[in-house]
Input
Amino acid sequence: MPMIDSRESVAQLRNLLTSLPLFSALVLQTPLHPYQLEAANAVLDACLHHPGGEFLLVFPRQSGKDETIAQLTAYLLTLFQRTEARIVHVYPTRQQIAVGTARLLRHVHHPLAAGRAWSKCDPIRIGIGQAHCTFFSGHPHARAEGATANLLLIINEAQDQDERVIERRFTPMRASTNATALYAGTVRTTADFLWRTKTRLERLEAQDGVRRVFVVTPEQVRQANPAYGRFVDEQVRLKGRQHPAVKSELFCEPIDTLTGLFPPRRIALMTGHHARQYAPTPGQTCVATLDVAGQDESATAGTLKRPSRDYTVCTIFQVTSGPIGPIYRAVDALIDHGSRHFQSAPGIPALLDRLIAYLNLWQPLALIADASGVGQGLCDALAHTWRRQLVALQFTGARKSALGNEFIALVETGRFQYWTPDDPDGWMFYEQCRFCAYELQEGLPPERALRWYVPPYATTMRPDGTTVPVHDDQLMSAALVAEADRLRRQGRLFIGRCASEVITPIRREVERWM
Output
């Protein structure tokens, strides 16, 4: 039996323990990609030779940020398992901690740990031998006392972290050894902790030439993983390159909430070349949307007690085929200010009667209506009197956020157009877009974090010089067409035309309503 060369074995073991790429590929058997290793090696070198450094890792969504950090942590715990090395890893929420700990646990049970891997709770700790990593939540009300980060401090999902909490509670944990700090996350806005950290570290880079910021592009990920590149291409095709989620989460470009939800570039995309249309064109396919406002109690008297109240707006969209989906062109709108929903007066019909007459004129395939609050009663009445497809949408914060993202996707891909601003109603629609502000709720991705609105006291000046309040009624009615498109994609709403050469007697009805 051949003798094993112990010197060769020791040399091989030394190579494994001094090379993160070899450790990743041969020990963990999950090789990191070059773009992951570039950032991880810089942090590793600082931990081993140049403590006190700060680094920022910015990765596109789902491109391996957390896997990189988990493998780096497992490698450090393996190297320092015979010392009291301490790593502190901070996530914004406990749910994220659960995911992060599960990932690290998969990597600490390997041959070089020699059965010395362990885990404990309260606080959550995962270790190999004497070295361990402690996990904390960065939530202001979470407990995080008594820990030391003498090897590495990791602030993950920095875009969702509270800078005051990090600086007061966690940064001092580095003090005893001037330990390395690693910030990581995905780009969100120019006002969050991640972007401020990026700006600060880039200033230091400019002073001493030491690289501290590592921003991974989708092209780098594509080179290592072509499937990821195809996913990015499809998201750009469906949502547009400038969609907030695509721009920030995939291309690592920040969202500037100060510019408003509809900056001039986006308004130009949604401005059609068609004039307002006051009657349907034979053979055209239409859908309608309805945003309901409250009724003014004095409307039957011919005056308005609350003239600043929102308007009820029913918008008609002409639907035509496009290369990636239907194109929705707003061609007309019924705009009512404060009419009683069900009660008529001399010369003033009830809003319900006007809506039914308007819908019968345009014959839309479906009506998408806001049934929240005051809209519930009107939607119930329409469901009994207008025997066509009616989709009643109950607005919640999450649903409005999703609707906003879906509407932006229509705009960014050229599938939404409003008539030209030549008439007062068209002009007011674009004013509502111009005044529309938005915020992103912390701790949530843009798809679920979007809060968009027209400020309650916004005013604008008409071309004739009069000052008028700006509401969001025309904008909200228009945005509801995104719900029609979502239902179409799910197969719950059919938008199109068909004909039959067999069922001739009802062909006209089939063409109109299928």
